[in-house]
Amino acid sequence: MSTESHRRTSRITDALLPTPSSPPPQAPEPHGPRPTGVASAPLPAEAPSRPVPTPGPVGGAATGSRPEAEVPPVETTTRLRPIRDHAPAPAPRPPHHPEGTRPAPSPPPHGAPHPSSGVPWPASAPSGAGQYAYGTYGAYRPSPYPGVPETPAETTTRLRPVRERRSGRVVAAGACLVLGLGLIGGAVAGAVLAATDAGAPAEPAGYAQARTLWHSVPVDTLFPRTLPGPAAGPGAATRTWTRVVVAADAPCSATVLSPSLLTALRPVGCDRVLRATYTDATATSVITVGLVFTGADPATTRTLSTQAARLGADVPPALSAPGTVAARFGAAQRASWWTRPLADLPVVVTSVSGFADGRPVTRPEPAEKAMTAGSTSAPAQAGLGHEARGVANRVERQVRTAVTDATKGEDEK
After folding, report:
1. Of 37, 140, 164, 399, which is the most buried if we count CB atoms within 10 A?
2. How confident is the model at residue 132 (pLDDT cuts 50, 70, 90)?
3. What are the transmembrane regions (predicted)?
4. Stretch 370-378: mean pLDDT, rounded?
């Protein structure tokens, strides 16, 4: 160091160091005054102040101190830099470990609460717990940073994206649905119809035998000479009818059938017509009964049985016999009639009643109306409605009996 530099340093040192004028005050004892009789340790001696050398002439040694007036004033205040607001220290980043060299964290202590949920840690963890952090819901999940507390893992299942619907697919699905419903409905309807057809026989028993009764059964079987009629008259009075005349079998025509019945049977077929006339025990009334054998199939026969009102809209023709009580029984003497198509046999039973003395009837009435209680018409007062229905019912029974006998005969053969 040069002499000039040494001088400059000495002046700065003299200005900064205080001049020792009096000893510094001693600090009080931290625990009160020292007890009496205890030797005090000697304090270190005060270091003497270093004399400030006074630089001499250039190139010479220091000769002493220079007067203060000769020392230039030196600025002793240190400039302070502004203190900025301290920003929060960034969180320490976990050390980087290459793939496969990351150390396994130690499992948490038993009973310590979880930092986020407060739930105590389990006593034991499943295998491999050292490589996982315990989650909020009790499941071990991988921890990306060993030693750093892990936030609760999200447990919501990821939803798959919903694709945009296309109108073509909707239309195709609707068409398939309609087609499927139609197929199912058709199958159900077919099953119901099959069950119905299976439950109802295609042809009732004795149906075929009934077609041939008009020529295979004796006339006395279908039209007995006497027909008993217990409780068949008005007020449940007993009636007995006696056969007066029997006509030969005839084809279906307007002379033996009423117009309405003939019109209804033409489409289905009409084979033959059998007729006979009966009279009551007093010979005051006469009744013509007829059996019409049709060519209808069982289904059509069942349909005809529901149309009795249409088939019996007109009065059937009467059968007279000269020299008998039915000699004057003609179209003008017809008073009441009855028409009944059988549902299980291809037969239609008809009957018409009138006065035996030839008395004309202005307004004939169906048997249902003539049997109404309180009716005051001439056919009702004479009980001709009961006569027509009673004879027809007894002849129908004879037909059914003949069919039963014919069926039994064929079974025996």
Report:
1. 399
2. very low
3. 170-195
4. 90
Average pLDDT over residues 335-355: 96
How many angstroms separate the CA atoms of 251 and 95, rounded? 121
List the domain range (segments joined by +) for residue 295. 207-412
Contact (CB, 8 A) for 262 and 253: yes
**Structural domain contains residue 190:** no
Residues in the chain: 413
Please tell me the total count of domains within the chain: 1
Phi and psi for 196 in degrees, rounded to 5? -65, -45
Separation CA 132–CA 396 (nearest Å): 100
* Tokens coding 155: 């447990």
- Weakest-pLDDT range from 135-149, 167-181, 290-304: 135-149
* pLDDT of 7 higher than 90: no
Q: Mind listing the pLDDT tens digit for each residue in 94-114?
A: 666 665 555 655 556 656 665
- Up-side HSE of residue 42: CA atoms within 13 Å toward CB? 3
Edge to edge, what strands does the sheet with 347-355 contain? 226-229, 239-246, 270-279, 285-294, 347-355, 334-341, 365-366
Give tens-digit pLDDT for 290-334.
Answer: 999 999 999 999 999 999 999 999 999 999 999 999 999 999 999
pTM: 0.53
Structure tokens at 170: 């909707």
Cα 267 to Cα 193: distance, rounded to the nearest angstrom: 26
Q: What whole-number distance in Å separates Cα of residue 104 and Cα of residue 102?
A: 7
Is residue 150 in a domain? no
**Which whole number is the average pLDDT over 221-238?**
90
User: Which amino acid is located at 317 in the chain?
Assistant: P
Domain annotation covers residue 375? yes
Domain assignment of residue 239, yes or no: yes
CA angle at 311 for the pair 271 and 263, rounded to the nearest 5°: 55
